[in-house]
Write a structure and sequence with these properties.
The chain is α+β, with helices and mostly antiparallel strands and 404 residues long. It has 3 domains: 36 residues; 143 residues, NADH Oxidase, CATH 3.40.109; 202 residues, NADH Oxidase, CATH 3.40.109.10. The strands form 2 sheets. It has a 4-stranded antiparallel β-sheet, with helices on both faces. A hairpin with a 6-residue loop joins strand 1 and strand 2.
Length: 404
């Protein structure tokens, strides 16, 4: 009897030791994964999101640029260069950064130029908060030489920006600068209210671009289908997937070095899960293969379009560079004010990209929603969020400044 009790005791002890050993191994493995994922690395790439970040400079021009770099941009490339005027302390010049183009998905650099408008809209809101008005002279030295676009971008400014002290200016959207501009999660079933719709559509009253908000069932289905189709085609376009992969950064260290492009936050991943996923992707890079990435993108888009209250279309009469900038200004104004109203947005503009394999849906959406020859510059889904999305990497303000 005593032998049986002793044997049972030894068996239980062996089980406990085994469980403890397994738990230790798992804990050590988890710790290693989290360490590789950067849990102990300071996220310097998020510094620009601090409300006091702009105060590192006393130059009002640098202060507004420090806010404007929070603006959205294609592939989060942040293709902006700023030159401070040496003759006038209230003037600065915005250039497109031709070293940050994404030619696979944006062969004509249209999205890059739209991103310039977003920068200007953010800059204006920041200036108003700081007691200044901001006026823009677009392409003061003339538009680009399209036969030598890269060189032209570095030589001809997108805008000459003039700041003037103005106690009468006000803004309702300043706090929205510090919230994520894109939310890819499903939205609630709540439709936009009439005051929300009226407030958003009024933003286009003084714009050269046009804004159309659509929320009826037919258009929700049609535009959602365009969104899914555009995502599917992009994931099957090898040049596009390679371009995206080249600007994906899967560790805190690489994000601190790049401060632009994509990261796991783009999937809404935050906190402990972020470091776990980054660690797993680093240790097992095969987890992030093209097939898995494509499947995830399509699944997220499909879930999003199935839970969308409205779509916004921003269009212009033609497709000049000035019109592209104007569309970007309106898009950023829409995004900012939507957040002020408790709404969020996600661009679904893959279907508007100009590479060959996207030609058929590009033509189809324009035939249906721009029948008079307009150019649709942006397609976005709009709604009430179900979750708060994390902010993404941003460059340091000093990196945007260029000596004339």
């Amino acid at each position: 009897m005593n032998d049986n009790i002793a044997k049972a005791h030894r068996a239980r002890r062996t089980v406990f030791i085994t469980i403890g050993a397994v738990a230790c191994v798992l804990a050590l493995s988890l710790g290693a994964i989290l360490t590789v994922g950067g849990i102990f690395v300071p996220a310097t790439y998020l510094q620009p999101w601090k409300a006091t970040y702009y105060q590192q400079s006393t130059d009002i021009r640098v202060q507004v640029v420090a806010h404007a770099l929070l603006a959205p941009s294609g592939h989060n490339m942040q293709p902006w260069t700023v030159v401070l005027d040496t003759a006038d302390a209230n003037v600065l010049h915005l250039y497109a950064d031709s070293s940050r183009l994404t030619p696979a998905v944006d062969p004509d650099s249209r999205q890059t130029v739209v991103s310039q408008g977003a920068f200007l809209a953010y800059l204006r809101v920041a200036a108003e908060q700081l007691g200044y008005s901001a006026s823009f002279e677009l392409f003061p030295d003339g538009s680009y030489d399209e036969t030598d676009l890269r060189t032209s971008m570095s030589q001809r400014p997108v805008a000459r920006i003039s700041l003037a002290k103005d106690a009468s200016v006000t803004t309702k959207d300043y706090s929205s600068l510090f919230r994520a501009d894109t939310n890819r999660a499903p939205y609630t079933v709540a439709p936009l209210t009439t005051p929300q719709t009226e407030a958003l559509t009024a933003l286009a009253d003084n714009s050269a671009a046009r804004l159309t908000l659509l929320s009826d069932e037919k258009n929700l289905i049609t535009l959602g289908a365009f969104g899914v189709q555009g995502t599917l085609i992009e994931t099957e376009y090898l040049a596009a997937t390679r371009e995206s992969a080249a600007v994906f950064h899967g560790t805190e260290q690489s994000k601190n070095e790049a401060r632009s492009g994509f990261a796991v936050e783009g999937q809404g991943t935050t906190g402990f899960k972020k470091y776990l996923l980054q660690g797993l992707l680093t240790i097992f890079p095969a987890l992030n293969n093209d097939t898995a990435t494509a499947k995830n993108a399509i699944t997220m888009t499909a879930a999003g379009v199935d839970n969308t209250a409205a779509y916004g279309l921003i269009s212009t009469p033609g497709n000049t560079r000035t019109e592209q900038v104007e569309a970007g200004i309106l898009y950023a104004q829409l995004s900012l004010h939507a957040r002020t109203l408790g709404l969020v947005m996600q661009p679904l503009s893959q279907v508007l990209q100009e590479y060959p394999t996207m030609a058929a849906p590009y033509a189809a959406i324009h035939a249906q929603y721009a029948p008079e020859g307009q150019t649709i510059q942006m397609l976005v889904r709009v709604g009430t969020p179900t979750t708060e999305y994390p902010v993404s990497m941003r460059r340091d303000v000093a990196d945007l400044l260029r000596t004339p």
